[in-house]
Amino acid sequence: MSTERPHSVSVAGVIVDDRGRALLIQRRDNGQWEPPGGVLERGETIPEALQREVLEETGIKIALPATLTGIYKNMTGLIVSMVFRCEAIDGIPTTGEETRALRWVTREEVTELADEAYAIRVLDALDAASPPAVRAHDGVKLI
User: Fold this and answer.
1) Of 54, 71, 79, 106, which one has the fewest beta carbons inside 10 Å?
2) Does the domain made of 8-137 have the CATH classification 3.90.79.10?
């Protein structure tokens, strides 16, 4: 039996507005810009986790089902993330306990603000990648 720690599973939602921009959050803990999301809790389905995390971090309720646009593995952090393109159905973007700032960004702006490993998630979602993208990274750069 392996003594390695298990992977964690997370979800992230890329909310796209009617102008084709994506909503990014700036995290309070590390200052990084990325789509809202987080780790699934025990007993929680993937759609429930997605809706909960997006609401907690942005104040926005999303429509379900959302479209899976990519699966990403952080090879150093042992995190597998599923990213979904989302549609807002209620709420106004607001910062929360985990969110320092929010910003609607264009394709060009996302690559300036976010590390490559997170920018590609947003770009894949904006492209509505089908089939979903499957990528690996080290937490910052794609591998």
Assistant:
1) 106
2) yes
